[in-house]
Amino acid sequence: MALDAVFRDHWGRVLATLVGILGDIELAEDAAQEAFAIAAERWPRDGEPDNPVGWLISTARNRAIDHIRRQRVLAEKTEMLARESTVESEATVYESDTFRDERLELIFTCCHPALAMEAQVALTLRTLGGLSTEEIALAFLVPTETMSKRLTRAKHKIRDARIPFAVPPDHQLPDRLAAVLAVVYLVFNEGWGGGRVDLAAEAIQLGRALTDLMPDEGEVLALLTLMLLHDARRRARLRDGEIVLLDDQDRALWDEQQISEGRQLLQQAIARGETGPYVVQAAIADLHLQQPRDWRQIAALYNTLSVQTGSPVVELNRAIAVAELDGPEAGLAILDHLDLDHYRYFHSARADLLRRAGRNDEARHAYQRALELAQTDAERRSLNEQLAKLSRSG
Amino acid sequence: MQYALLAYGSERTDAGPMDGAIADVLARPYVTGWARLHADGSATTVRTGEGRTLLTDGPFIESKEFLAGVIVVEADNLDGALAIAQELQGPRTGGAIEVRPILEALFHGA
Q1: To probe the interface with A, which of B74, B79, B84, B86 has the most A CB atoms within 10 Å?
Q2: Partners of residue B101 in chain A, C-beta under 8 Å
Q3: Could you give the CA distance from residue A124 to residue A145 in angstroms, rounded to a whole number?
Q4: How far apart are CA A383 and CA A367, in angstroms?
Q5: For A226, left (φ over 0), alpha (ψ -120 to 50), or beta?
């Protein structure tokens, strides 16, 4: 239903302003839900108001004030809100479109490092993405009850410990922004794996909101680029439920419009002089889309990224690029230094290089280890196929 | 809003003079109270059982880490309290500081 889509679009914007007014996420959420319910009843009958966001915020705020008055809890707040709203009647306030957009404050609150990462992710999807608790639970394969507790606990911690509802000051901004981007990218990567709730689309939506809110942050643009470029290959990545490797993908299935949008954003980020890890990753993603692939540049960029992040997974990717340049043994020499035994892609990548180096027994062993760690049926089928090929070649 | 900074240690460097950098922070106006505690061995724990109170020798939670001090500070929000905790933890050689919002408190001059 179209109204659902309208609601999803407005949820984060409406909720953020209400948190700013009411000073509490739970209170704001209840009020917003009530306003959306009233809209669902009235809008189809009376038509959508000219300023739907203003309408929803005003309605929610008025309801919240009613509740507070009636229940007589939060006595000081009632007084404060009553003073502010005595001159406004329900009919007149709908015109107002002066409500400040406070989504940025909200996302920095939800992604505060004093909250556990999983709580940050859930809260961001709930408050800014407008996903229901059930949907988030489904996406992360946990019982709804568990997710509901996780969200409630996080909201209570924000309230009780007074986690600020504010954009961090300049000296904290780089670290805090990195935390926000990490949450969005984690949501995207969760969506990449499964086909449950469309988390990849959610993450891109969040990325778009962030670029609207922080148009001058190169890393924000770069993260959106990275997600758009990966997501553009979504339809080509699986064929009849089987994983298709990049070089075998049907390029006609790539979303060219999304790719060119991503490339434009990347140029903007680079033009801003940004050289952070998301710019480097986006540049690598872009190089992977070009034929023939420029492995020298790809390896060099992975090297930059490795220095920036110190991540062994980046080193793994560098090893694959180096193997393309200087042969499988050169790649294997890098892998030998990595402590990634728990990581399934380490073993499948190592197996491929061993096979190409003609070290078949070791390759078989590595594929088997990858199989033990595989998480989806498609992965298992693909690995079994590699193993079978290896047996045929002796 | 008041926060309690619970300073934990993992090795008892005996109760010598306080580190100068820590003393500086404790002298600031937003520190509304603080206490350095004697070692775990000095603790006695009171609990209830079988309808009466029972005493046990030692801390309530036996662990390698122990509560070494409590500092109460005034801050606008969690970020403010965390900044003070970070400044206090900086000169320490180990342990950790747990930051908790205070529900209610009363302090008389110590």
Answers
A1: B79
A2: 160-162
A3: 18
A4: 7
A5: alpha
Interface check B78 vs A, CB under 8 A: yes
pLDDT 10s digits, A120-163:
999 999 999 888 999 899 888 899 999 999 999 999 999 999 99
Closest CB from A162, A168, A172 relative to B1 = A162
**Measured between alpha carbons, how far is A286 from A262 in angstroms, rounded to an integer?**
9
Whether a cis peptide bond, with omega within 30° of 0, leads into A292 is yes
Token pair recorded at residue A164? 């600020």
CA distance A389 to B12: 62
By Cβ distance, the residue of B1, B76, B78 closest to A114 is: B78
Query: Is there a contact between B32 and B4 (Cβ–Cβ < 8 Å)?
Result: no
**CB-based contacts of B93: which residues, under 8 Å, 6+ apart?**
B13
Complex-level ipTM: 0.82
Query: In terms of Cα–Cα distance, which of A291, A121, A308, A318 is closest to A222?
Result: A308
Euclidean distance between CA atoms A387 and A287, whole angstroms:
30
Nearest by CB to residue B101, choosing from A112, A162, A168, is A162
A161: distance to nearest CA of chain B, Å?
5
Map out the domains of chain B as residue ranges.
2-101
- Name the residue among A381, A389, A382 with its Cα closest to residue A356: A389
Selected for mutation to probe chain A from B2, B73, B77 (highest A CB count within 10 Å) is B77
Instruction: Give the position of tokens 């003079």.
Output: B17
Q: Which residues of B touch A114 (CB under 8 A)?
A: 78, 82
With contact defined as beta carbons under 8 Å apart, do B13 and B89 qualify? no
Q: Are strands B66-74 and A242-243 parallel, antiparallel or unpaired?
A: unpaired
For the B2-101 domain, the top CATH level (class) is alpha beta
User: Distance between CA atoms of A286 and A229, rounded to whole angstroms?
Assistant: 7
User: What is the rounded CA–CA span in Å between residue A375 and residue B106?
Assistant: 55
pLDDT digits (tens, 9 = 90+) for A3-58: 777 788 899 999 999 999 999 999 999 999 999 999 999 999 999 898 999 999 99
Distance (Å) from the C-alpha of residue B79 to the closest C-alpha of chain A?
7
* Residues whose CB is less than 8 angstroms from the CB of residue A370 and which lie 6 or more positions away in sequence, other chains included: A344, A345, A347, A348, A351, A383
Select the more confidently predicted residue: A239 or A35.
A35
pLDDT confidence bin for A59, thresholds 50/70/90: very high
**Residues from chain B contacting residue A163 (CB–CB below 8 Å):** 77-79
Q: What are phi and psi of B36, to 5 degrees?
A: -95, 135
Please tell me the distance from the alpha carbon of residue A50 to that of residue A183, in angstroms, as a whole number. Answer: 34
